[in-house]
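Need tokens for this chain, all 238 residues.
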Amino acid sequence: MNDVRARLAVLNNARLCDAVCGAHGRAGEFLQSGSIWINRHQVPRFYPNAFTISPNASIDSIDELLRGEIGQFAVKDSFCTLDLSSRGFRILFEEQWIYWSASQPKPEVQIASLRWAKIDNPADLAAWEFAWSGASEEKQARIFVPPILDDEDIAFLAAYRGERIVAGVIANRSDDVVGMSNVFLPEQNALEFTAGCVAAIIDAFPGLPIVGYEGGSALAAAQLFGFEAVGPLRIWTL
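Here are the structure tokens for all 238 residues:
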């Protein structure tokens, strides 16, 4: 794959992954001249221990992880170029990298009762994560911990209705793009909430294209909103 937009999306998402792990004191490493990111430690829930950044990344570093002590882990095959089935992996899901050009106009926010704001303190970050995860009363290990708020290139954005968070997204800036991830929106008025989400990202990091990845109905909705699919990715898991 030679689409530079996909490569920008891949590297942006890898840097967010590294930042989230680093906030836990367990940052990863960019190896093979930057063609793959690996983490030799236990990573937060839903995060991979290997992440290819080039379609030419070899599986040597993944084999090294398999010989280590981290147990089961996932690999983000960012260009669908790996075959890890012989190593005991199975495909968890396949999605598409997406790209929204900065030349498009900023969406108009249609829902007047909403207030979008950047999360700036640990208590609100915990509330954001609870709203995103839809967590029950069961205690789950935190994924997004307070040190992540110190990173000026990452913004946790929340839509408030009164004092309650009803939608949100993570925006992260890198290499002249801004990533959009961990989007959560109500099913009702989803298109209007998406407009607010994109507008909030533009307010946080103005003038930049927006990248991310989606699949299924979320991908279809993103394309209707003006995002382009620019390349496939695949998640492998043991």
